[in-house]
Amino acid sequence: MHMLNPLEISDAEQLARRIRAQIIALSCRAKTPHLASALSCVDLLTTAYWNVIDPDPIREMRPDRDRFIFSKGHAAPALYVSLAFRGIIPEALLEHYCEPGSPLSEQPTPHAVAGLEAATGSLGHGLPMGVGMALGAKIQGLPTHVFVLMSDGECNEGSVWEAAMLAPAQNLSNLMVMVDFNKWQATGRSREVLALDPLKAKFEAFGWQAFEVDGHDIGTLTQLMRDFRSGKFDRPVALIAHTVKGKGVSFMEDDNNWHYRIPKPEELERALQELGVSL
Fold first, then answer.
1. How far is CA 274 from CA 10, 150, 251, 268, 270, in A?
2. What pLDDT digit, counting tens, does each position of 117-149 carry?
3. Which of 10, 27, 98, 110 could form an S-S bond across to 35 if both were Cys, CB 3.0 to 4.6 Å?
């Protein structure tokens, strides 16, 4: 599997704005919630799919493909738009998002299209599945690397920490978890619900190579993900990615009302203007 030439930072940032614009349009048209959760993780997806992961094996569903498990399934439009813009699935499928019979349902259905590796409507299962996939690849001698993107709220789940203890015990240096640490969950501040901090130290104590990064800094994210993909680290890697819920749109940023709110057409237009994108 070859390494990709990374996008220039300015090109990647423009792409991320296009992805955010399309996500907001989907939410407006299909009247689906969890918009702000989708916007916070766009730069992580952009970095992974354009600068690190080879899309061809995913499109062809080859056994040795890298796996990207989108564990925060409620934010699925971020994944759908990324897969479509990357050419892994037909872009026309976005027009039927959440329609009856569409493979792009509100929560991911495993293998409904290429790139949907798991059902992740129930939170806290992405990392355990990622551990299993990484261990399976290791046993079979495959070059597969496994990326798991999960929310900070998911760290409430005991299954996350069971998996976090198992991965270093199995020396899964082919596993990376990215925590989209946007500081909110459905009903409140993540740090007020449970004592999440210090997340980096928690993963380190369990035996992970852990980094604390700006989750919107595509340059730094690219370097760390490429280092992981090239085998630089001898243990599983955790990226604690500090992000902003609703990133990119001023009236949505850090406002948890947009966990459930659905944009009105005039709010969609205002968001598109801020993003500088026409659809």
1. 17, 27, 10, 10, 6
2. 999 988 999 999 999 999 999 999 999 999 999
3. 27
Q: How far is CA 191 from CA 1, 70, 181, 185, 202, in A?
A: 40, 22, 10, 9, 14
Are the CB atoms for 177 and 150 separated by under 8 Å? Answer: yes
Whole-prediction pTM:
0.96
**What is the sign, positive or negative, of the torsion defined by CA atoms of 123, 239, 256, 268?**
negative
In the chain, what are the helix, strand and coil shares in percent, each to the nearest 5? 45, 10, 40
pLDDT at 188: 86
Distances (CA, A) of 9 to 46, 106, 141, 180, 226: 11, 31, 34, 20, 15
Copy the structure tokens of residue 24: 């907001």
Give me the pLDDT at residue 40, please.
98
The answer to whether 218 touches 16, Cβ cutoff 8 Å, is yes
Q: What's the pLDDT score for residue 185? A: 87
H/E segment holding residue 178: strand 175-181
What is the CATH superfamily name and number for domain 9-275?
Thiamin diphosphate (ThDP)-binding fold, Pyr/PP domains (3.40.50.970)
Q: Are 66 and 133 in contact (CB under 8 A)?
A: no
> With b meaning 16 or more CB within 10 Å and e meaning fewer, what string describes 198-234?
ebbebbeebebbbbbbebbbbebbbebbbebbeeeee
Asked if residue 71 lies in contact with residue 120, where contact means CB atoms within 8 angstroms, the answer is yes
Nearest-10 Cα torsion for 27, 266, 252, 160: 0
Q: Which residues in the chain show pLDDT less than 70?
A: 1-3
